[in-house]
Amino acid sequence: MDRSLRLNCGLKSALISLSNLLRIITVRVGACLMELPQTIFKYEPFALRAIQNLKASSVYFAPPAVFNDPYDCAITASIADASHDEVEQLRTEFSTSGAYTQEVRDANSHLDLDEFETQIRRGAQVVIDKARNDFLRKRGVTCFSETNDNLLMWSHYGGQYKGFCLEFRTDFEPFSKLQGVSYVTEMPQFPLSDFIRNENHTQLMKRMFLTKSSAWAYEKEWRVFHAEAETLFPYKREALKAIYFGPDIAAQDRDLLCLILHCQNPDAELWIGSRSSTAFRVEFAKAPGYVPDAVPR
User: Fold this and answer.
1) Mapping DSSP to helix (H, G, I), strand (E, B) and coil, where does residue 244 land?
2) Lesser CB count within 10 Å: N end or C end of the chain?
3) Cβ neighbours of residue 200 under 8 Å, at least 6 residues apart?
4) Is residue 281 part of a domain?
5) How far apart are CA 209 and CA 104, in angstroms?
6) Which pLDDT score is estimated for 199?
């Protein structure tokens, strides 16, 4: 067997573990450096799926391919350049790593430094691209925000002010597994060392799937991942703290949502939204005594 082919085969076998780790990470996401808020918000349009989800006390995990940002979860990550000394150190570590067979290590010992770097870089890029494509097709994501009064959020995700926003307590699943999104101006690059050493894989995957353009920073987004796309995940009724109605929601639509909550989430707070006359945001007034017309008074 050609020595380059043997090295490629060995790399493919070892790097499969990274793909397997990805499957675990997308379900059991590692700890995030950001402090988890006590509550989190989810904007919804007044649409059939959103109403059904509310009635079922569930959140829907959508495939990332349907998101409105074409780079969302499909960023073109690349391998960062490494210095001559770094590559030499990596080759030394590779030659003693238990993740590779003796045959592969022997084949590596005959490669010059440039050949070694080329093989490692090629294998790492293949894993990154495959992980990204598999994620887009198979994984589910549900998205939340730290704020409930942002005009653009109401316009983009709240049915152009005619929808609603749900507030959830984050000490209940799946909200306790939220991960904060990072906003950057350039595509991320991963150190070549991450594909030789094992300790950075969690951070590598997090950067890939929790990174967005800084143009979206106003969203203040948090995410939860699921192993399967198009999954409906039920939450405990106590997890829903409040519902906020958009400033332009129709009265009959608001009444329908209140009827749903009156039956299954009677302790959820009701807040009526209006456009602020002094700031570019939505204001809310609590409506503790609000009862929809269809409910006997």
Assistant:
1) strand
2) C
3) 191, 193, 194
4) yes
5) 31
6) 47
Which residues are CB-neighbours of 154 under 8 A, at least 6 positions away? 43, 160, 161, 163, 165, 246, 247, 282
Report how many domains make up the chain. 1
**82, 192 Cβ separation under 8 angstroms:** yes
Amino acid at 143: C
Q: What is the DSSP letter of 217?
A: G
Token pair 């003796």 is at which residue? 102
Helix (H) or strand (E) holding 14: helix 3-25
- CA 266 from chain centre, in angstroms, equals 30
What pLDDT score was predicted for residue 88? 83
Q: Quick one: tokens of 4?
A: 């380059």
| CA–CA separation, 31 and 18 (whole Å) | 18
Range of the domain at 281: 3-286
φ, ψ for residue 25, nearest 5 deg: -65, -40
Q: How open is the CA angle 231-270-248, to the nearest 5 degrees? A: 85
pLDDT tens column, 33-88? 578 999 999 999 999 999 999 999 999 998 887 776 666 666 677 788 888 888 88
Cα separation, 247 vs 143, in Å, equals 22
**Does 120 reside within a domain?**
yes
Q: Assess whether pLDDT exceeds 80 at residue 241.
A: yes
Q: Check pLDDT > 80 for residue 9.
A: no
Q: Which two tokens stand for residue 179?
A: 């991960």
CA torsion, ordered 29, 35, 36, 37, to nearest 10 deg? -160
Alpha-carbon dihedral sign for residues 50, 229, 195, 29: positive
Asked whether residue 267 is assigned to any structural domain, the reply reads yes
